[in-house]
Request: fold
Amino acid sequence: MKSILKAFLLSVVAFAGCYSGGESSPYKYGITEVKIAGKQPLYFKSEVRGMNYDVLCLSTNEDPCAGADSKYDYVFSNFGGERIYYKIENDSLVLFDTWTKTPPDKGRFQVNVIPKQLQPLDFAELKKTPEKQSVSYLDVKLDKTIKCR
Reply:
């Protein structure tokens, strides 16, 4: 019984050590800028916490530590690393994915954002040959150097 309790306590201490901050912090952030000529820059920001929280937002705020704000940002909840493709068409940003985005409650971007929710088979086809449709893959890499908490 003592050995089981000892093993349990050691695993709890080890687990707690992993989530105490620093390099092993469960909070991770990433940001990618998208520029459209003559328009305000837009930022795709990712925040990941542990294994069950992964949010991506499209924002005019360039601060990677400012979380997704549903009043002013497009929010992609439970993002989970799904792929997003985009293209810039005239002064619009066209987004291609397979799930629903929540548009901002207030305010407007200078850039017209056109969400295109594709059926899974259409999205699979897009992923095979994005260059045929002149779209780019959105890659928001998590940056270990961003410390927010």
About this structure: Confidence is low (pLDDT under 50) at residues 5-22. Helices lie at 2-18, 120-128. The longest helix spans residues 2-18. The beta strands are 27-34, 42-49, 53-59, 74-76, 85-89, 92-97, 112-117, 136-137.
